[in-house]
Amino acid sequence: MKTTSSIVNLNLFSSSEVKILAGIPCHNTESSIANLIDLTKPYVSGIIVVDDGSTDTTAEKASSKGTMVISHPKNKGYGEAIKSCFSAAQAINADVLVTIDGDGQHNPSDIPRVLKPILNKEADIVIGSRFLDINNGIPKYRKIGLNLINFLWNINSRIKVTDTQSGYRAYNVHALKDLTISNKGMSASIEILEQARHKQMRIKEVSINCSYENNNSSLSLKSMRHGINVAFFTIMVRLQSHDVLSK
């Protein structure tokens, strides 16, 4: 099934179960999306794939699996893709949204671990962290950039997060209703955490596995630009935060 970014009246769940929706943001992930959907299905009630303006067959391969596909007419950015995941979860009255990247880096077998604090009512947001396990296999250039962004966000913050940029997350109904995503790019991950902190939401982290085998480990101009933009955005929001001045 394929649709635009407007979702209403979807009947993906039975009324008797906890409604767990997997939201998968994608851009040109035709080589990984079908297998990812197959591996994700056992752990959730339904799946929404957000195809963010792909120029390959990502949408077609996702749709062939019987999965609902939200197609952006052009590449709008990671933040817009996550925003569409949120909108879909609210439209179908999901109890929990778990987001997992479509490029095959995330292992769906970690979904129960990410969901557990939500289902046990211990957290409003759960982050799958790549930094709780020292053997995380993150390429060196990524690790340097991620550690810098983590450091900037954690300065004098009452809430510490080891992986602010992880896209492997779970959100309960409270978080889905109260968080507003306006940033269109990768900085949306920081925007969400900053809002959650100010709204005194409970944030927990769990360890996840992450694979970089099929990803280019070289430093590209695009990834450098993304990292710089997120770092500057993080500095901006932290300077605006009262937490920088007082604990």
Description of the structure:
It is a single chain. The protein has 247 residues and is an alpha/beta fold. The protein has a single domain, classed as Alpha-Beta Complex (Spore Coat Polysaccharide Biosynthesis Protein SpsA, Chain A). The protein is 36% helix and 16% strand. An eight-stranded mixed β-sheet has the order 1-4-3-2-5-7-6-8, sandwiched between helices. Helix 2 links the parallel strand 3 (46-52) and strand 4 (68-72). Helix 5 runs parallel beside helix 8. Residues 3-11 and 243-247 have low confidence and may be disordered.
Quick overview:
The chain is built from 8 helices and 8 strands. With 247 residues, it is an alpha/beta fold.
Radius of gyration: 17 Å
Note the overall shape. Answer: globular
Flag low-confidence runs.
3-11, 243-247
Which CATH class applies here?
A: Alpha Beta
What number is the mean pLDDT?
Answer: 87
| Spatial sequence of strands, sheet with the most strands | 1-4-3-2-5-7-6-8
CATH architecture: Alpha-Beta Complex
How much beta, percentage-wise? Answer: 15-25%
Separate helix tally: 8
* N→C terminal distance: 49 Å
Question: How many distinct domains?
Answer: 1
Give the CATH superfamily.
Spore Coat Polysaccharide Biosynthesis Protein SpsA, Chain A
Write the layout of secondary structure elements.
Elements: E1 2-3, E2 20-26, H1 33-40, E3 46-52, H2 58-63, E4 68-72, H3 78-91, E5 96-99, H4 111-119, E6 125-129, H5 140-154, E7 169-172, H6 173-178, H7 188-198, E8 203-207, H8 221-240
Parallel strand pairs: 1-4, 2-3, 2-5, 3-4, 6-8
Antiparallel strand pairs: 5-7, 6-7
Helix pairs in contact: 5-8
